[in-house]
Amino acid sequence: MAVTSNWCRCTSCHAGYGWKDKNFDFNKVENIDCLVCHDTTGTYKKFPTDCGYPPLKDKVFAGKKLFKAVNLSFVAQHVGPSTRESCGKCHFYSGGGDGVKRGDIDSTLIAPDKKLDVHMDAKGLNFTCATCHTTTAHEIDGRHYDTPAPGGLALAFPKYEGHRVRCESCHGLRPHRPKQKLFDWRLVKLNDHTDRVACQTCHIPLYARGRPTNIYWDWSTAGQFKDGKPIVKMGPLGRPVYHSKKGTLKWGRDLVPVYRWYNGTYSYILPGEKVEAGPEPIEIIKPNGSPTDPKARIFPFKPHLGKQPYDPVNKTLIIPKLFGPKGSGAFWADHDWKAAAAAGMAAAGLPFSGEVTFVKTIYYHALSHMVAPKEDALKCGACHIRKGGRLADISGVYLPGRDRVPELDKIGATLCLIALCLVTIHGLARIILAFKK
Amino acid sequence: MAQKLYLYSRFERFWHWSQAALIIFLLLTGFEIHGSLEIFGYEKAYLYHVYAGVALVILTAFAIFWHLTTGAWRHYWPVKEKIPQICYYYVIGIFRGEPHPFEKRPDQKLNPLQRLAYIFLKLILFPLQFITAFLLLTYQWWSYLGIEATFRKVALWHTAGAFAFLFFLIIHTYLTTTGRPWYNHIRGMILGWEEV
Predict the structure, then answer these.
(1) Does some domain include residue A213?
(2) How many beta carbons lie within 10 A of that of residue B177, not counting itself?
(3) Considering only Cβ atoms within 10 Å of each terminal Cβ, which end of chain B, N or C, has fewer?
(4) What topology in the membrane does the UniProt record assign (chain B) (predicted)?
């Protein structure tokens, strides 16, 4: 699933003011939408299917939701710094709805309490997104994609101003400091973890703590109708578990992350890249890193599983056309995967064999938001435990409490047990002899 | 006629019993950190283990000073005499009511087997545990200290040392009951006076 061929639907967020086809020019200043970030009135809203344009007269979306005409001069007279709400207009709703894609950001962050986000706590520190996602001449620091956050030196010193996106930028590399005592061994030990364990691992104990997030998306079942009418079946979390346009969906709340070695970069399957479909899901986006990589640390992720269209002849993932008018091949209008694949792949300039199957896919989404207050951070025993710990799958480190060399334990325990048996027999013999006398 | 000897001075008894308590506590907390036991919870077990370890190091420092200044270290100097006889005693003689072949005196409190066991403890096991413990606590500084080791290996040696201590504790505790009457050695280590 991609923006390509679905521009006018996706580009209400995927930035581009009027990005309606592949000829869009990203270098043109007038193609940048200033107001979407800098509106402070809350009245600047883009129409979902208008290629990134706001409605200039009252319009109804999908027969239900009214989008009022935006008063551009009013908005323009009330511009200001970005807020949680203005960033959230897109980022909280990524994946097509509140909390769908991310799992660590959703609309509850507009006014969160301390429990939900210790930094954004509306009655406390009240951070905006830009407090951490610092900008230099409109270039916003992000953590992932092709530009990992600045390296270890990016502390919050004046000379590094403009790069504050890492936890360490403000908290340093040994972040736990005693409040009253001069020295606290517990904190020393916690600080020792920062070489191999990212802050997020302990301090984001669960994700989807605000709204439910989507954890499984099976496109292969999309396109079913009942009496010619689309089906929308709601699940217990108030989210659809089946949707004619989208397929079968699973949702979760307060979920335990999965943990991977991560050096700040990802590997991606690129459009047109050949991938073998096997029993294991295809890793569309996976974190790079290994225990031998000095830059890699253990990091929490939201795994997102799905089933999506695949070209079994060319062995490529298919970019389908989902959005468009009837007859355009768009799946949401014509409900035909082959036509949608042909239209989408043609728009992407990629070959398509005419065959469509569905393959299991997975991608990993790094979790960095909704940092819990310290009392909710993971305790030692969450990982330092023989079985079933959070880091049960992490290899390459000796984790006390989890790891051991079974042979050594066996030899040690056997020798001690033999000693115990010997002294017991010896002692019993002495007792019996003493009674005989 | 039983004769009472003052064998263990006040410091020696204090040292012995506090060391015993610390080692038992270190075994409990240590094996919890190792994942074999569940008593205090991992965090507390870890902290208690470190504190008790530091306490044991301090105690040992005092004990070393005491042994050197009083000359008590000579009690641990290994001797060859009577080792076979003592082995025979524990395997057979003790059941026949024979007397212990070794005669305790204030100037030789420890029998040759004890000397061997304790000197092994003091020269091998204690240093092994202290050095590996120091390394485990300071693994972040290894690169600055020029130490080349892997955390896993050091942890393994520390665990092996712990098993050795447990093994010693079992045998040692049992042997303290082999006096006549059975609590004679234990009483001696508590009160200082032992009947011989």
Answers:
(1) no
(2) 16
(3) N
(4) Multi-pass membrane protein
* Residue type, position A23, single letter: N
A69 assigned to some structural domain: yes
Rounded distance between C-alpha atoms, residue A154 and residue A162, angstroms: 9
Give CA separation, A105 vs A117, A204, B116, in Å.
10, 12, 66
A-chain CB neighbours of B170 within 8 Å are 416, 419-420, 423
Cβ-based contacts of B35 with chain A (< 8 Å)? 384-386, 400-402, 404
Residue A41 lies in a domain: yes
What does the pLDDT profile of chain B (196 residues) look like in tens digits?
A: 467 888 889 999 999 999 999 999 999 999 999 999 999 999 999 999 999 999 999 999 999 999 999 988 888 898 888 888 989 999 988 988 888 888 887 778 888 889 999 999 999 999 999 999 999 999 988 988 888 889 999 999 999 999 999 999 999 999 999 988 888 889 989 998 887 7
Torsion of CA A146, A151, A154, A159, to 10 degrees: -90
Look up the domain containing A36 and give its range: 1-80
What element of type H or E holds B45? Answer: helix B42-70
Distance CA A118, CA A114 (A): 5
Overall domain count for chain A: 1
Q: Does domain B4-195 have CATH number 1.10.3720.10?
A: no
Strand, coil or helix: B16: helix
In a domain, A289, yes or no: no
User: Around B112, how many Cα atoms within 13 Å sit in the side-chain half-sphere?
Assistant: 12
Nearest to B152 among A189, A195, A398 (CB): A398
